[in-house]
Design brief:
Elements lengths: L6 H12 L6 H38 L6 H19 L1
């Protein structure tokens, strides 16, 4: 496989090699690809976690009485005020 890097990317890779952080371009790319894989796995896990939380909230809301929007906002503001006062 052949890849092309922008001048900025080449400069970045070379600076890492010259600094002794990595021994070769291949080392830099191996780390970059490993990090990309970890990032994508974490993103997928985060999405699954959020989806589960939303589903749980929807199920819980089906068994909970509705609340007036104004009351809800007022309760949230009271919580924020309480937290802010505790931080002082």
């Amino acid at each position: 496989m052949s890849i092309s890097l922008t001048p900025e990317q080449e400069s970045f890779v070379q600076s890492k090699i010259q600094a002794g952080t990595y021994r070769s371009t291949q080392d830099v790319l191996e780390i970059a690809l490993r990090l990309l894989d970890e990032y994508e796995r974490a993103e997928t896990q985060w999405s699954e976690d959020v989806r589960e939380k939303i589903e749980a909230a929807v199920l819980a809301s089906e068994h909970t009485s509705p609340i007036d929007g104004e009351i809800f906002v007022h309760q949230i503001l009271e919580r924020f005020d309480k937290v802010r006062q505790e931080e002082r």
